[in-house]
From TrEMBL:
Signal peptide: 1-26
Protein name as it appears in the record: Tannase/feruloyl esterase family alpha/beta hydrolase
Cited PANTHER family: FERULOYL ESTERASE B-RELATED
Species in which this protein is naturally found: Novosphingobium flavum
Keyword Disulfide bond: yes
Length: 573
């Protein structure tokens, strides 16, 4: 088996300021860690190599946390003259290592080291790597992209080179420290971290044995274009008709009125179990002639809402350029694309992407040049742009679907996505899974049924009702052990992945829980606020295309009273 990494996402950690007490480390272990400073690897400079005894010295944000001592190695990689990829590898000392390697992803344009997720992995015994992907954000600006202006190589580093380079270097350091390679390697990330995971899987299938990938698409350029499309439609193209908060709330309530109980879920749900079954008619909210209302929609606004659900389209051919978001997601629109004003700010990824990465034009947003974007010619030209010696289409998208060697080596993928995600459309996950099936049908001349069975043997997709982008929402969005729940393969995605890769126990379902507020969960590798809470509702999250159905008996807020049912059209002989 190869080695890989999974980021333990968002477990609430509590403890004293210093690392938990442990037996004195042998001098040889201290020396082995310090010796890594002399590691010789092309393009690598080791900047830190020491056994850590204080998390406060690592980061003030971790000052109240605790863990066993670990060998902390920091390094800088320079695969090109303009590259500066920083990473850290944290390795438990002595018998605390579980024999596995883990890589944790970042989100957005984060140019930071994801210490909190790394600490979560170390607490589980993993040797954990986190990378800044080759850049440092401006202080306090998580979506900052100014670092990309005039630095095309850094754009490529962010797209794929930074993560892979950090993985290769970390494995070499790990093998030297422990005297052996890791038995297994796992990756976990959500949002941009999920995209990093898909990119690793499709470009470097030998890097990891298993992946937990959340809220991802293999078309990263398309994701930026989709985010721009939604913002243009909802806020910027027609400022006088921009959607207002009361209207968005009214749209959401109308979606629930029309669709709840017809979507495979319960008529009492406040979310949609499968939004694809919702035939939402937005014209039901059209303003009646002469009527004044803050919640009805004028004709242009009706068209705007339809365009958001449809996603970006080529105006000449009508072809879909990227998936649209789903009905039910409306209450999160304000965090992404409603309520914006001209000139647009680079506060969401698309603005920084267009101004600093794609066009390299500091006047792109201030000059409102995005208002003249041609969704026919400009899309093709954008994908073909040369940045860092590669086209954006080749560095930011990954079209390979040949995973035969990964599958033959026993590799497994758990992918998840919230049906209410307004940032990366959930249909991108459904389409990616279908693309794996289609590739087998084309490349190996397999029947659709046989190809689907083969994909099932290594890839499981979990579509989470009522979950927004990576976490939160009115549905069973948290898949992490909460008070009163076991830490097993149904309540924790990393455990589910380990059981599948190492024991052959395929995950047919997970148990999602609804928690109030923004408590961290395994679906939120970027962290969150609050301590673990007792869920007020649990429900099975079934492996796609199955969905949870209430048995009609017992508490409808208890996952025990649901079964996983496959749609009739999806059943195979």
């Amino acid at each position: 088996m190869r080695s890989g990494a999974r980021a333990l996402a968002g477990v609430g950690l509590v403890g004293a300021g210093l690392l938990a007490a442990a037996p004195a480390l042998a001098q040889t272990q201290d020396s082995a860690c310090a010796d890594l400073a002399g590691m010789k690897l092309a393009g690598l400079t080791v900047t830190t190599a020491e056994v850590t005894t204080s998390l406060a010295a690592v980061s003030p944000q971790l000052a109240k946390e605790s863990a066993q001592p670990f060998c902390r190695v920091g390094g800088t990689l320079r695969p090109t003259a303009d590259s500066e990829i920083r990473f850290e590898l944290w390795m438990p000392v002595g018998s605390k290592w579980n024999g596995k390697f883990q890589a944790v992803g970042n989100g957005g344009f984060f140019g930071v080291l994801n210490y909190r997720s790394a600490l979560g992995g170390v607490k589980r015994g993993y040797a954990v790597m986190t990378s800044d992907l080759g850049h440092t954000n401006a202080p306090g600006a998580s979506e900052d992209a100014t670092w990309a202006l005039g630095h095309g190589a850094k754009v490529v580093d962010y797209a794929y080179r930074g993560e892979h380079s950090s993985v290769v270097a970390s494995k070499a350091l790990l093998a030297k420290f422990y005297g052996k390679a890791a038995d297994h390697a796992y990756y976990t990330g959500c949002s941009a971290g999920g995209i990093q995971g898909l990119t690793e899987l499709l470009r470097y299938p030998e890097d990891f044995d298993g992946y937990v990938i959340g809220a991802a698409t293999p078309d990263h350029v398309g994701q930026e274009l989709g985010a721009m499309w939604n913002t243009l439609q909802a806020s910027l193209l027609f400022p006088a008709d921009a959607l207002k908060a009361p209207q968005v709330t009214a749209i959401h309530e109308e979606v629930l009125r029309q669709c709840v109980g017809k979507d495979g879920g319960l008529p009492t749900d406040r979310f949609l179990t499968d939004p694809r079954l919702c035939r939402f008619r937005v014209e039901a909210l059209a303003c009646k002639p002469g009527a004044a209302s803050e919640t009805c929609l004028n004709p242009r606004q009706v068209a705007i809402v339809r365009a958001i659900y449809a996603g970006p389209r080529n105006p000449r051919t009508g072809a879909e350029l990227f998936s649209g978001i789903m009905p039910g997601s409306e209450l999160t629109w304000g965090a992404y694309f409603t309520g914006k004003t001209n000139p647009a700010k680079p506060d969401r990824p698309w603005g920084g992407f267009m101004m600093y990465m794609a066009y390299g034009d500091a006047d792109y947003l201030p000059g409102q040049k995005y208002l003249k974007f041609d969704w026919d010619k400009d899309v093709t030209a954008l994908r073909a742009m040369q940045v860092g010696g590669e086209t954006l289409d080749s560095s930011w998208n990954t079209r390979n679907r040949d995973l035969d060697k990964f599958v033959a080596a026993g590799g497994k993928v758990i992918q998840y996505h919230g049906w209410d995600d307004p940032n990366i459309p959930p249909m991108e996950a459904v389409k990616f899974r279908q693309s794996l099936v289609d590739s087998l049908v084309k490349r190996r001349k397999m029947s659709v049924a046989s190809a689907t069975n083969l994909v099932d043997s290594y890839h499981r997709l979990f579509m989470i009702p009522g979950m927004g982008h990576c976490s939160g929402g009115p549905g069973p969005w948290s898949i992490a052990p909460a008070p009163g729940q076991p830490a097993d393969g149904e309540h924790d995605m990393l455990t589910a992945l380990e059981n599948w890769v190492e024991k052959g126990a395929d995950p047919k379902r997970l148990i999602g829980a609804h928690l109030s507020g923004g408590a961290p969960s395994a679906g939120n590798p970027n962290g969150g606020a609050g301590a673990p809470q007792k869920p007020d509702m649990t429900r099975p999250i079934c492996a796609f295309p199955a969905a949870a159905r209430y048995t009609g008996k017992g508490d409808s807020a208890d996952a025990a009273n649901y079964t996983c049912v496959r749609p009739a059209a999806a059943k195979r002989k």
